[in-house]
Amino acid sequence: MTDASVRGVGGEERDDFSRAESKQIRARSLRLLGSLVQPMRARLVLSIVVVVISTLSQVAGPAIIAYGIDTGLPALLNADWMPVAFAGLAYLLSGVVGATLIAWFTILSARISQAILFDLRKRVFLHTQKLSLEFHESYTSGRIISRQTSDLDAIRELLDSGINQLVQGVLYMLFTAIALFLLDPASGFILLAALVPLAVLTRWFQLRSQRMFRRTRVASARLIVMFVETMTGIRAVKAFRKEKRNEAEFGGLVEDYRDANARVIKLFGVYDPGLVLIGNVAVAVVLLVGGFRVIDGGLAVGVLLAAVLYTRRFFDPMEDMAMFYNSYQSATAALEKISGVLEEEPSVPDPEQPVDLWESAGAISFEGVEFGYTEDRPILPHFDLTLPAGQTVALVGSTGAGKSTLAKLISRFYDPTRGRVTLDGIDLRELHPKDLRRAIVMVTQEAYLFSGTVADNIAIGKPDASREEIEAAARAVGADAFIRGLPNGYETDVNKRGGRVSAGQRQLISFARAFLADPAVLILDEATASLDIPSERLVQDALQTLLADRTAVIIAHRLSTVSIADRVLVMQNGRIVEDGSPAELIGGDGRFAQMHASWRDSLV
Amino acid sequence: MPSRRRTPTKEMVMEAESTATSTVAVLSRLHPFVKPALPRIYGAMVVSLSASVVALAIPQVLQWMVDGPLADGDASQIWLAAGIVLTLGVLEAVLIGARRALVLTPGTYVESRMRNALYRQLQDLPVAFHDRWPSGQLLSRAVSDLNLIRRWLSFGLVLLVVNVLTIVGGAVILLLLNWVLGLIFVAAAVPVMIYSFAFERKYSDVARRSQDQAGDLATSVEESVHGIRVLKAFGRSRYALKRFESQAEQLRGTEIEKAKAIAGIWLYLTLIPDLAFGVCLVVGVWLASTGASSVGELVAFFATGTVLLFPIWSLGYFLAMTLDAKTATLRFFEVMDAVNTIEDPAEPRSIADGRGELSFDEVHFRYQDAPEAFSDLLDGVTLTVRPGETMALVGLTGSGKSTLTALASRLYDVTGGAVRVDGVDVRELRRDELRTRVAMAFEEATLFSQTVRENVLLGRPDATEAELREALEIAQATFVDELPQGLDTKIGEEGMSLSGGQRQRLALARAIAAKPSILVLDDPLSALDVDTEALVEAALRRVLATTTALIVAHRPSTVALADRVALLQEGRITAVGTHAELLSSSEHYRFVISSLEGEEARERALLDDERDEDRPTAERTEEVTR
User: Fold this and answer.
1) Across the interface, which of B78, B93, B554 has its CB nearest the CB of A533?
2) Under 8 Å between Cβ of B255 and B262
């Protein structure tokens, strides 16, 4: 049974989960961890074998010293060098084997942890790409970024040193304990008794720190959200003198994060010395009991020495183990958040049995479609609409009339609440994503450029395009001239000039992208808004050629675009209120005729 | 997604090289941030050292016990010995606790101070700096790097110093216990030290690379989220993943290289003490057999040596941590050392009465990294916007209109000439004052994830409710009342997806609400539909009657708002006049702004079409193409 309150990213900002919720979250993050470790089993076994041998040879140390003193010394007094030489060689050998294997193990475990991280990075990246725009709009980019950076850092810390510490530490303690039992069972039992307070202390730490670590993850995400937002919007921050206010707010977030961290650290500050204390008391007890037994003649001095050394050594990795446990707790908190994101189901999922569509004609049809983010507030009430293949449709209407929403349904950014949208008769939800994206491309008003060269950015339309194709696309939309005017032409790094390719130029680049992609259905959502009139004219000329043999949906406020359309749809409050050829509508007395008249007036 | 050759920029590398000195010199730059915590760090070292002394004392008690009570069979002394060991043990735990209490909380304060300082510096640095630096690199510095430094300070530094001192102290004890065995042990340190130097060099290099690559990866993540619409629209998620994968793969390679370097030093640090111990064992037993040493001495020697093993092994770990902290510090100071080219003047002037005159006097501007062969982007712009006047700025895409507007509020500084507000050079004003007088609306409306109210009142948080309403009404942004919580709706976090036009109107309302004496609007209406645009324009006229304004315009309708129009062409203002004047006098102006000619042609085509109405669609389209 699952609790909806903490499904996916629900309840992410809380730290006061109920027992059941906590269990559910733990279970899902452990499942994730399990699935990450699963493919590494073989390598994990190898590395454990390596570390077992290496730890064995390290643990042998005190025993060899005991042998050297208890057997070698009396033998040497009888001029017998053999036992001493043997002890010396054995010690050297154990040293070489132990050290070499430890080094090998370090590399092995790095490979494992890096493979796990790599896997996890890819999974989160791909999954966030799959999640719908709806999710992204509400989750904010900063949080996604923090999941993929600082949360992954926490997991990296665990894997980096954690595996080493855990495997080595556990084995070291295990073997030390076994060696102690073999050497002197009585001391072994004393050690065993010491495990009881140790377990109690650990449980206490676990319960307390779990909550604190969750708080650190939430605090760090908030910090990152604000940091990213400030840097992305630095122009507005400066222009409106937001710096001081930001400083105060950011300072508050930094303090929250610091406080959360400090609390965790304080808990650990009790846990760690607590472990040392338990270990030292055990050593004293072993010494006390052993001392009496030596006097009674029940125990050799060398054995007592070894027993004390072993007891001491048993607790040596304790600090490491505590640190492992600390990073484990921190990583689990991060894993909880990440597994939450991974648990989010894309509201626009890929089809389970995708239908291929190798050649698309480009006929779009809405059948009984309704759309709304919530049940009670429909954005687009029930409607039917058919766009025959090859038709160029202009979509007009005031802001917020639902034009973009309609366009987003065609490009499957959203799925309809009711009814279906089809391409050549195939429901978009069943269409293979590769075919869907090849057949339908949307160019939006915000023309985002990725870092890289101008050519790279155009090539997003068709990753395997040749330079000729890229330049041809740029020429076709009239972007060629300005690109050649850039310092390195097509090879200009937009990162270096990123702020300086003007909004209009960015739109031209994104047009070239679409041109290169050569889709059967092209959707232009306010794609020419930032262009100056001469550029717009060029683009429109290009569009005439470009749209000749494909279906197109054009959303534009400037009605000049309408002249290249075969059909105009006027939208108002989510409904299509007029539908006809441009000439028909201009000639009529409807909304479009009014809009067109006022637009004509606005021209020179 | 395009290939990302985001190895640090040339400047970044040069900055790094110029400061690449010894580890100690780099880390000592942290001093100003660490200073308040220093007494406690020193205290922690003392406490921690005491803990080590206590740990080292335990074997000495063992020696005394083996050679004394155990040899004599004196049972009463055993209680004493165990009691001392217990006391020492408790003391050690208390001291470890004290070390943590002393140093860890102050460490978190150091981290906070550095993070706040970095944020302050980043907000202060000019836009040109942000153009150059990928934001993922900044983020990784602000989060991961500072985290590393904090942990090194409160943990690595203390334990490194203490462990080295413990090892030195232990070595002295070993020498005192038995100088022959002690010497063997000390001699073993020489190769370890030699190897450590080589390790430092190698590891620093890899650590730096790994941190830079992590920053690049963060940048990729950011871009993949910010550009999600493009990636989705073109179905390029897989493609983006491939790019991301190759970067992640690089980072993985670097991390494994790092692990190999660590494995190398661990090999030395475990092997060499073990070898020394092996030799000591043989020699020690031989010495005992000749009577040159006692069994108790041997026991103490090995017990002491065992106590030293862990500090020795951990040296590798702490050394690596120190080097990580060093490269993180270098990265931190690359940002902190960046010279702010746009600062407040030392002796700021003030504008007594703001009439609101904005003038550009022979203004030159070029971007720093523009090749020399290119002429200045703004090549001697001279233009005066009179108080109360509305000036439209017209020019082709990429002609430098947006850049020119950015100069007015000093987002960039001119490279020649001057921009003056009410006769005062903008560089002589405090930025705060300047930006109070000049408010901007950008074409790309940036909204922050705060409430609508906070977003609109960004420039004047203390505005009254009436002023807020007025601004919203002028910008036709009253749609906000229909949002779930009206003005208190948080943008961005409540599933609010505003359209481009809505965002632009909020940004416009923000500029208006700031009540500046000069309003600079960069194509503020581009995303609005015709009706809304007309409404905004009508309302704007009221504001513009009393406010000086410079408006970047693409459309004739926006130009119509202006009293005069300035034409920007090839870096200069080539014509200033009313719309009608320019239409008749400037051919370039007609080319840039006039759509009439083209529209009439289209209109005719449309009417021709009408006659062919009954022909099927496909054919018609074909005809247009021909």
Assistant:
1) B554
2) no
Tokens of A37: 């470790």
- B78, B124, B231 ranked by CB distance to A291: nearest: B78
List chain B residues with CB under 8 Å of A265. 100, 104-105, 108
Q: What is the mean pLDDT of residues B429-452?
A: 87
Q: In this model, does residue B596 exceed pLDDT 70?
A: no
Asked if residue A194 and residue A85 are part of one domain, the reply reads yes
Could you tell me the two tokens for B288? 């005992």
**CA–CA min distance B347, chain A (Å):** 20
More confident residue, B49 or A254: A254
Q: What was the pLDDT predicted at B18? A: 41
Same domain? For A14 and A158 the reply is yes
CB of B270 within 8 Å of a chain A CB? The answer is yes
Say if residue A63's pLDDT is above 90.
no
- Structure confidence at residue B618 (pLDDT): 39
Is A355 inside any structural domain?
no
Task: Identify the three-state secondary structure at position B595.
Answer: coil
Q: Domain with A105 in it: what CATH number? A: 1.20.1560.10
Backbone phi, psi, residue A601, to 5° = -65, -35
Global pTM value = 0.87
Chain A residues with beta carbon closer than 8 angstroms to that of B570: none
Judged on CB neighbours under 10 Å (0-12, 13-18, 19+), B434 is: buried
Query: In chain B, which among 465-494 make CB contacts under 8 A with chain A?
Result: 479, 492-494
In a shared domain, residues A374 and A325: no
Instruction: Return the HEC string of B405-472.
Output: HHHHCCCCCCCEEEEEECCEEHHHECHHHHHHHEEEECCCCCCCCCEHHHHHHHHCCCCCHHHHHHHH
- Candidates B62, B239, B317; nearest CB to A463: B239
How sure is the predictor about B606, in pLDDT bands with cuts at 50, 70 and 90?
Answer: low
pLDDT tens, residue by residue, B212-254: 999 999 988 988 888 888 888 888 888 889 889 999 999 999 9
Q: Give one DSSP letter per residue of A561-576, joined into a string.
A: GGGG-SEEEEEETTEE
Residues A456 and A593 placed together within one structural domain of the fold? yes
Q: Which of A304, A313, A451 sits opposite B134 (nearest CB)?
A: A451
ipTM: 0.86
What confidence score (pLDDT) does residue B621 get? 36
* Chain A residues close to B258, C-beta within 8 Å: 110
Structural domain containing residue A516: 364-603
CA distance B378 to chain A (A): 13
Distance CA A120, CA B210 (A): 18
Last residue of a domain, one of A310, A342, A374: A342
> Where along chain B do its domains lie?
31-207+256-336, 358-625
Number of other residues whose CB lies within 10 A of the CB of residue A389: 18
Number of folded domains that form chain A: 2
Beta pairing partners, B383:
B360
At residue A118, does pLDDT exceed 90? yes
Write A135-140 long-range contacts (CB < 8 A, 24+): A135/A344, A135/A346, A135/A347, A136/B225, A136/B228, A137/B492, A137/B495, A137/B496, A137/B497, A138/B493, A138/B494, A138/B495, A138/B496, A139/A9, A140/A225, A140/B449, A140/B492, A140/B493
Domain annotation covers residue A356: no
Instruction: Name the CATH topology of B358-625.
Output: Rossmann fold (3.40.50)
Cα–Cα distances (Å) from A242 to B114, B123, B130, in that order, read 20, 9, 16
pLDDT at res. A364: 94
Provide the shortest C-alpha distance from residue A324 to chain B (in Å): 14
Whether residue A262 is found in the same domain as residue A189: yes
User: Please, what CATH class does the domain formed by B31-207+256-336 belong to?
Assistant: mainly alpha
Question: Which helix or strand (DSSP H or E) is residue A200 part of?
Answer: helix A185-232
Contact B271 A96 (CB under 8 A): yes
